[in-house]
Design a protein that fits this description.
Oligomer: single chain
CATH class of one domain: Alpha Beta
CATH topology of one domain: 2,3-Dihydroxybiphenyl 1,2-Dioxygenase, domain 1
Distance between the termini: 32 Å
Strand content: 25-35%
Helix content: 10-25%
Length: 336
């Protein structure tokens, strides 16, 4: 089914151009993560990673059933902030979804994470070790000098209590947004300006994809994000970061006008990552949902249908529409 969708994407951009298509999104509002125990997840993200709970809400009823594609749902959602960025943690009280696959790997196409910026990788790793987080990398990795677009970036993968992949990331002075280097920039938010914090904010969410060109047609040509960086990463550091032997990745970074970026991870090798489960639902623990701010939910729905996207929601509900990208990752567009 997904293979047919990729082929369909090849013929859509010309039609969009002919119809004077405009970008559907203006920013990334938040990254949504389905969790099994909201109280436990709030404690983990707040006490270990310094997120602040902004709000907590409980939802049920037909509107939310049609938005999330889950009948008979009751869900609790907590909105959490780190720096200027937000995540939304959602526990489905009913019905309970499927657990995270025990053998999930970083090259499976349901992989998604958030990259949390740290002001000090050595201290961040020591802190995470003290809190006994589950390693996903063998340890922090510094990307090599020969890779100019990624040289000296430090990164470490670990997991939250439900097995979701997370990353802590430290940029060298010549890379990353100015706000991640508060001593070099005067134009900072109040949150980002606090240099004594170990964890500063979210730089991007990363998704594993099967075909960069197909994903660009969706996120760049349809949604309206802009490409801001590219690299090809391989070698022992990348293998140990992703914990995938022989890993060679084509990485593409995109951004909207506001919010964290979206990063494509296409595994050129190995090509044995598993496809997104076609039966996946919003209440399953592998579910993530990138939430975009848009101009018109109705226009987004029509353009997504023209693009032959598959949908999670039955249509526009409460000013929002939820669909899937070419690999099955969920995207929500909410009218602002």
């Amino acid at each position: 089914m997904l293979r047919r969708a990729w082929l369909n994407l090849l013929i859509i951009p010309a039609a969009l151009a002919a119809s004077d298509h405009r970008p559907l999104v203006i920013g990334v509002d938040s990254i949504g993560i389905t969790v099994s125990d909201l109280d436990r997840s709030i404690e983990f993200y707040s006490k270990i990673l310094s997120f602040e709970k902004v709000s907590e809400t409980e939802f049920d009823g037909p509107d939310y059933e049609h938005l999330e594609g889950v009948f008979g749902l009751r869900m609790r959602t907590a909105r959490m902030r780190l720096g200027d960025e937000y995540i939304e943690l959602t526990e489905f009280l009913a019905p309970r979804g499927r657990p995270m696959p025990d053998d999930s790997r970083a090259n499976d196409r349901w992989f998604q994470h958030i990259a949390i910026i740290t002001s000090d990788m050595e201290h961040a790793y020591q802190w995470l070790r003290e809190k006994k987080v589950q390693h996903a990398s063998t340890g922090p990795q510094r990307l090599p000098e020969w890779n100019k677009n990624a040289a000296n970036i430090q990164a470490f993968y670990f997991r939250d209590p439900d097995g979701h992949f997370l990353e802590v990331l430290a940029f060298p002075p010549d890379k990353g947004q100015a706000k991640w280097h508060p001593n070099q920039s005067e134009k900072l938010s109040k949150q980002s300006a606090k240099t004594d914090k170990l964890f500063l904010g979210i730089d991007h969410t990363a998704i594993v994809i099967s075909d960069t060109d197909a994903s660009l047609r969706f996120y760049r040509d349809l949604l309206g994000l802009q490409v801001v960086g590219e690299s090809e990463n391989y070698g022992t550091e990348q293998e140990h970061l992703n914990n995938v032997f022989g890993a060679r990745l084509r990485i593409t970074s995109l951004r909207a006008a506001t919010g964290p970026g979206v990063e494509f991870l296409e595994y050129l090798a190995p090509r044995d990552g598993r496809a997104y489960p076609p039966e996946e639902k919003s209440n399953d623990l592998l579910h993530w949902q990138t939430k975009f701010s848009g101009i018109s939910a109705e226009e987004a729905e029509q353009d997504l249908r023209n693009f032959r996207s598959s949908f999670i929601s039955t249509g526009v509900v409460r000013g929002s529409i939820v669909a899937r990208d070419p690999d099955g990752h969920a995207v929500q567009i909410s009218q602002q």
